[in-house]
């Protein structure tokens, strides 16, 4: 199989795809006939492309991952074809090059196209691949498309139409690397490989659920892209929705592309739609402002001084089904927060009656299960225990499992796992066309509301804080509060320095 990377001169290719491919190569998990053809407008020969990637990999790989002999072998699998992906004629250069490579490698026209280019090119490339006769039989043809897949419901539908007119649905791999993370996949193991959680995983025992994915950094070099996108499109519509689906879904009949994605789809379709009159109460958006030595969002390069792009979103959503009816799911994501953390907290209902005294500020509230996706991946079960000594005081305590302690096998980078699935044609962990549309369809009323009501509040929050007070108020109105990790976890110092 030849992996053809569009945008091979770009950031994603260098930082994520190449290290993942090197890892797969080292572990002998690539197809037996294998080569990578990089393409982009930047001029390179095979030789200079190989040299550049070798330097990048030598710099970026950890010392214990770097094997000079394997790296040299891997580099020999790289080829490069300069081309402009918007120019029809250039696809004949690509076609000729692929024919040449097929002969050299005895590849039977098996191609995996990877679109590591800006989303503005997502429409053009499959159309021109088809025109050049590079899709369809003979051989295997698959395409991987990066997020964001669409900008709203209409654009996602249009993209789906284009892709399904060129490829079959099982040949389209809409990638969201969140779903390749070991700890995200571990949510499935936690829920469906154990029997103790299932009986309490429902509205009878769960009070509410928090899903937080925040980062300490601002927009960095992505300001131009981010200005047009905003946090809801960049993070909520894809990453947070994936996490919500894994927490809320029913057990799939089998762990395969059909059963698993059917269950994801059912959750998206069970989301209680936003009503225009209540969007302001259900969704809080914010934008970071200058604090100490940190620039505010509007002061960042390539950001309009009066920008209304949100860098923070908190929302309350409901899954209207038998299991979850009436249980709020609070989602929150933002930039320039006090720390970088992605975690899900399942809060259970309080014990019906307080039999014991409580100690100071650690009064038992209710049990909770914290699933930490990053950093320090692990699971914490938080529950009340007796304080040693006389009397009978109880306080909350943590039973803390660190994912690193499972050790032994080298943890696979999310991209490595997902690319391996593309090689083998397993689309279980990739978004299906209808699910992407369902997700956009859920959020489009919010996007439309913000577009049509420029006066709708965009709250400010100083960089380095947990977002606008209105996000806290949204929780407090229901008697809950956000579990800001720096405050609550046991290993606070290490956690909050990150
Ligand atoms: N970077 C990440 O960590 C990351 C993470 C998740 C998803 N993604 C997604 O992955 C995709 C690629 O990301 P990236 O950060 O690698 O993007 P990038 O560096 O901005 O672009 C990748 C390459 O695309 C080519 N390109 C850019 N504009 C073009 C144009 N108008 N016409 C033709 N070619 C053009 C450029 O190569 P030439 O100038 O040489 O042609 C560039 O090196 C994006 O859709 C992004 O949303 C990226």
What does this structure look like?
With 498 residues, the chain is of the alpha/beta class. It folds into two domains: 2-146, NAD(P)-binding Rossmann-like Domain (Rossmann fold, 3-Layer(aba) Sandwich), CATH 3.40.50; 179-409 and 432-497, 2-Layer Sandwich (Dihydrodipicolinate Reductase, domain 2). 36% of the residues lie in helices and 20% in strands. It has helices spanning 11-26, 46-60, 68-75, 90-105, 124-131, 153-166, 182-192, 223-248, 257-270, 279-282, 414-424, 433-452, 469-476, 485-488, 492-497; strands spanning 2-6, 35-40, 78-82, 111-115, 141-145, 172-174, 206-214, 283-289, 312-318, 328-334, 341-348, 357-358, 368-374, 378-386, 393-402, 459-462. Strands 12-15-14-13-11-7-10-9-8-16 form a ten-stranded mixed sheet, with helices on both faces. The longest helix is centred in the middle third of the chain and has 26 residues, at 223-248. It is globular and about 80 Å long. It starts with a strand and ends with a helix. The model is unreliable at 488-498 (pLDDT under 50). The structure holds NADP nicotinamide-adenine-dinucleotide phosphate. The site of NADP nicotinamide-adenine-dinucleotide phosphate has 20 residues, from helix 1.
How many individual helices? 15
CATH class of the largest domain: Alpha Beta
CATH topology of the largest domain: Dihydrodipicolinate Reductase, domain 2
CATH superfamily of the largest domain: Dihydrodipicolinate Reductase, domain 2
C-alpha Rg, in Å? Answer: 24 Å
User: What is the CA–CA distance across the termini?
Assistant: 40 Å
Please tally the β strands and state the result: 16
Mean pLDDT: 92
> Which shape, going by the Cα principal axes?
globular
Sheet of most strands: 10 strands, mixed
**Helix/sheet category:** alpha/beta
Into which percentage range does the β-strand content fall? 15-25%
CATH architecture grouping of the largest domain: 2-Layer Sandwich
Strand order of the largest sheet: 12-15-14-13-11-7-10-9-8-16
**pLDDT below 50 for ≥5 consecutive residues: which ranges?**
488-498
The residue fraction in helices comes out at 25-40%
Name the hetero compounds present: NADP nicotinamide-adenine-dinucleotide phosphate
Structural domain count = 2
């Amino acid at each position: 199989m030849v992996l053809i990377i569009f945008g091979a001169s770009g950031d994603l290719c260098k930082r994520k795809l190449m290290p993942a491919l090197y890892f797969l190569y080292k572990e002998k998990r690539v197809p037996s006939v294998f080569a990578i053809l990089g393409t982009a407008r930047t001029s390179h020969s095979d030789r200079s492309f190989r040299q550049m990637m070798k330097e990048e990999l030598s710099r970026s790989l950890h010392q214990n991952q770097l094997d000079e002999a394997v790296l040299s072998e891997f580099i020999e699998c790289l080829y490069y074809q300069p081309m402009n992906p918007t120019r029809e004629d250039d696809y004949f250069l690509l076609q000729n090059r692929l024919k040449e490579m097929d002969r050299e490698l005895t590849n039977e026209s098996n191609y995996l196209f990877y679109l590591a280019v800006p989303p503005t090119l997502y429409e053009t490339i499959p159309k021109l691949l088809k025109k050049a006769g590079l899709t369809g039989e003979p051989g295997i043809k698959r395409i991987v498309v990066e997020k964001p897949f669409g900008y709203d419901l209409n654009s996602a539908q249009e993209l789906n139409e284009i892709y399904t007119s060129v490829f079959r649905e099982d040949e389209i791999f809409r990638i969201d690397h969140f779903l390749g993370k070991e700890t995200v996949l571990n949510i499935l193991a936690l829920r469906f490989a154990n029997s103790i959680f299932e009986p309490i995983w429902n509205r009878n025992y769960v009070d509410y659920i928090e899903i937080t994915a925040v980062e300490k950094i601002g927009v960095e070099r992505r300001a131009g892209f981010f200005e047009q996108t905003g946090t809801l499109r960049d993070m909520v519509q894809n990453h947070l929705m994936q996490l919500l689906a894994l927490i809320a879904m029913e057990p799939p009949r089998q762990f395969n592309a059909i059963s698993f994605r059917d269950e994801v789809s059912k959750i998206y379709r069970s989301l209680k739609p936003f009503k225009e009159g209540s969007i302001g109460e259900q969704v809080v958006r914010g934008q970071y402002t200058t604090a100490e030595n940190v620039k505010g969002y509007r002061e960042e390069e390539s950001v309009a001084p009066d920008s209304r792009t949100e860098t923070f979103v908190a929302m309350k959503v409901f899954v209207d089904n038998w299991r979850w009816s009436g249980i709020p799911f609070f989602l929150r994501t933002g930039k320039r927060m006090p720390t970088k953390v992605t975690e899900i907290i399942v809060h259970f209902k309080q014990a019906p009656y307080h039999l014991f005294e409580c100690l100071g500020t650690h009064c038992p509230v209710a049990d909770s299960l914290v699933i930490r996706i990053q950093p320090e991946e692990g699971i914490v079960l938080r529950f009340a225990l007796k304080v040693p000594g006389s009397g009978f005081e109880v306080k909350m305590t943590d039973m803390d499992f660190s994912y690193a302690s499972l050790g032994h096998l080298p943890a696979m980078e999310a991209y490595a796992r997902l690319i391996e699935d593309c090689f083998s044609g397993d689309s279980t962990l990739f978004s299906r066309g209808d699910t992407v549309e369902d997700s956009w369809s859920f959020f489009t009323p919010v996007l439309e509301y913000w577009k049509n009501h420029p006066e709708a509040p965009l709250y400010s929050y100083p960089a380095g804080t947990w977002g606008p007070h209105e996000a806290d108020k949204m929780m407090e109105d229901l008697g809950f509060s956000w579990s800001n990790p720096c405050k609550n976890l046991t290993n606070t110092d290490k956690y909050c320095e990150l």
